[in-house]
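The following block was generated as part of the benchmark described in Methods. Ligand: KG4.
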Amino acid sequence: MSVTILGIESSCDDTSAAVIRDGLLLSNVIASQSVHEEYGGVVPELASRAHQQNIVPVVDAAIRRAGISKTDLSAIAFTRGPGLLGSLLVGTSFAKGLSLGLRIPIIDVNHLHGHVLSHFVRRSADDRVPEFPFICLLVSGGNSQIVLVKNYNDMEILGQTIDDAAGEAFDKCAKVMGLPYPGGPHIDRLAAIGNPDAFKFAKPRIPELDYSFSGLKTSFLYTLRDNLRKDPDFITKNQADLAASLQRTIIDILMEKLDLAVKKTGVRTIAIGGGVSANSGVRDAVAKYCESRGIEAFIPERAFTTDNAAMVAIAGYFKYLDKKFCSYSEAPYARVSL
Ligand code: KG4
């Protein structure tokens, strides 16, 4: 019998619902919230309210676009954390209510797990998926981790950031340059026309496989401060070069540890995931690194790099196969590790 999973994602500022049947994607609907742009970051209270407005139409659209009826669903998977508690509560409560109405189980999904498993979302049975074990470089606004993925429900963190995430480094540096939030995509766009060797920023010296981005952020800030004293138009005149040099430094930091992880584990398959994996430079660097070493690379479609419910549905699908369900007394969690 077919297994049909509805996935619901509401951890931050995207309300998303997706349907996966027997591992194949039938629909993936995302409503993004533009309300935060004018505040320069996500406002939790506004995010929860927008989720409340979006969740019914988004779930309804996902079911309609999948060409199924809600009575065809086998289970409902929802993001339980990490994320903003008020936002998570909307998705969690909706999943519980719908599951009680339909008398089907609920499955809680760790958002980070979802990012890693997004590589198993297939549109057709011929789509390539990674073989176990593989290394996943998980880089988002809240996380920078190197994960050893041994199986769908068995992952080990080999290294992670001890302070800021890579996405935060992009966003905070973009903010001091006066770019809109989130700054990552703007840096990406500007970096394409800038000189990555124009400026040198500090790189951390952290042992083993952990990351650190706070020193880079400070070094970037001091470069702006010192140069703005000499020329008030320094940022405007050097926007593209600053973006390119910042992006190059972040990529160098990410790649150095990824290389170390490959050497330590001997694993020959690499995947990337999370919002920062949408970055053109990061995608390029990982693809070239893998190609030159005969390592298999999995670079996700851009639609699956940021928050989406397809990854929640696929993570839920594998938990369903393992009969890992969730009880109604479980609550969302704002912070949790992989
Ligand atoms: O995975 P995600 O949507 O949110 C979290 O779960 O944290 O990632 C958001 C992060 C933001 O920091 C955003 O600036 C960054 O991903 N991002 C990018 C790009 N697209 C999104 N960073 C660099 N280049 C991009 N093209």
